[in-house]
Write a structure and sequence with these properties.
single chain; about 40 residues; mainly alpha; 2 helices; about 60% helix; about 0% strand
């Protein structure tokens, strides 16, 4: 079902926006930190 495939990303984005006062700053810090993320 293709329409539902993107919903986890939307839900995660909504949680992220609600959790942090300045989500753009958090994203910039994550980008600057450049920690490799490996999912196993």
């Amino acid at each position: 079902y293709k329409e539902a495939s993107y919903k986890p990303y939307i839900i995660a984005a909504m949680i992220f926006l609600a959790k942090f006062a300045d989500p753009a700053d958090i994203l910039k810090k994550l980008e600057e930190k450049a920690t490799p993320r490996v999912f196993k």
